[in-house]
Amino acid sequence: MENIVAANLRSRPTRTIISILAVAVGVILMLIIGGITSGTLNDYLDRTVAVGADFLLKPSGSSVLYAFTSATLPAKLADKLMEAPGVGVVAPVLSMFSASDFMLIFGVDLATYNRLPGRLRITSGRESLEGYEVIVDELYAKSRRVAPGDKLKILNHDFTISGVCRTGAVVRIFVPIKTLQELNGTPDKATIMFIKADPRWDVSQVHESLQSRYSQLSILRTTDSSLLLADTPMPGLKEFRFTVVFVSMLLSFMVILLAMYTTIFERTREIGILKSIGASRGFIIGMIIKESAMICILGVALGTAMSFAVREIIVGVFPTLQVHLTARELVVSCALGLLGGALGALYPAYKASKMDPVTALSYE
Q1: 137, 147 in Cβ contact below 8 A?
Q2: Contact present, 302 and 16 (Cβ < 8 Å)
């Protein structure tokens, strides 16, 4: 049967190649879009942990993703938090999403923020953040080809780059918190607060103390990035991933369904001959399923290889974008691509097996 399957695919090279490419596109969609989503999220959480704060204080019920968190915390709350036993550093932060840069901007008080272990380590320029000054990280500076002293338009205002910091900071753009509060129309407000416990205190005791004092707020431990996601809403993320997977599977399903269904009509006489010489229904179904499986396997292999190439292109064009292709995502995407193709072949295979040999032999 293997020779028949291979011969059938070779006899229709155009359709076979198009089907393989369509399956590959579905796999690429799942891997690249899923890789961008998970890569950006994982990178974001890892850099949050790298700040070195012990706790992240935010409004109750808000997302750990700063872009989805409103500026509702009073900035003066930082002074009250400093009075709590065991608290060493409190750094209020105002975050805004810049559509033009497609990334987050942090408004910080540099002196306070730099008391955290993940301080901004300046590699060029000055350690200054006043007025309309901005500090960017090395990757941003490299991708935008800017340097200290250059002008940068942020939120429709001109800023001067005072310094470039080492890559790995929680975000790539930092401006003075007072300036961002003014531009955002939220004076004396903050989005989140990074809290560092006094090293002489037990972190768990400080956490319990803060939770009892500020039960109306959410205080998350930042020792592990996975803990930040445990009890925080992720607006639209599951729905987005489901849509990508569904569309990709539907693409594989429809391509195989149409390809195999059309093939059956073209090979009606061939199927009639096979049945007339004793081919069973199981043999016919197996032949169609094996053809679709071979197309799906080749499509999955091509899609996987192309996904790595596409990732390199994306990272080369957009250095600040993270695309993670993990082993788990590779296995899931390949399995779903094969499943979509297998489901698409079921009806054509069943229809082929039900053909009457006499009618099939007389088909023109």
Answers
A1: no
A2: no
108, 91 Cβ separation under 8 angstroms: yes
Pair of tokens at residue 131: 């007025």
**Pairwise CA distance, residues 361 & 276, whole Å:** 9
Sign of the C-alpha dihedral, residues 74, 75, 80, 82? positive
Give the angle 188-192-193 at the CA atoms, nearest 5°: 90
Identify whether 189 is part of a domain.
yes
Query: Are the C-beta atoms of 348 and 60 separated by less than 8 Å?
Result: no
The full length of the chain comes to 364
pLDDT tens digits for range 275-289? 677 767 777 777 777
Number of C-beta neighbours around residue 43 at 10 A? 17
Count: domains in the chain: 2
Q: Is residue 217 in some structural domain? A: yes
Say if residue 145 is exposed, middle or buried (CB neighbours under 10 Å; 0-12, 13-18, 19+): exposed
Domain end point (choices 177, 197, 221): 221
For residues 29 and 332, the answer to whether their CB atoms sit within 8 Å is: no
Sign of torsion, CA 27 29 34 36?
positive
Do 185 and 307 belong together in one domain?
no
**DSSP states of 241-259:** HHHHHHHHHHHHHHHHHHH
The pTM (predicted TM-score) of the whole model is 0.69
Residue 226 lies in a domain: no
d(CA 291, CA 10): 11
> How far apart are alpha carbons 22 and 122 in whole angstroms?
48
The answer to the question of residue 46 being in a domain is no
pLDDT tens digits for 309-345? 998 888 887 777 778 888 887 888 788 777 877 777 7
Distance CA 145, CA 98 (A): 18
59 with 81, same domain: the answer is yes
Q: Kindly give the pairing relationship between strand 55-59 and strand 87-98.
A: unpaired
Range of the domain at 104: 52-221
Give the pLDDT confidence score for residue 148 in this predicted structure: 95
Contact by Cβ (8 Å): 73, 188: no
Does residue 275 share a domain with residue 208?
A: no
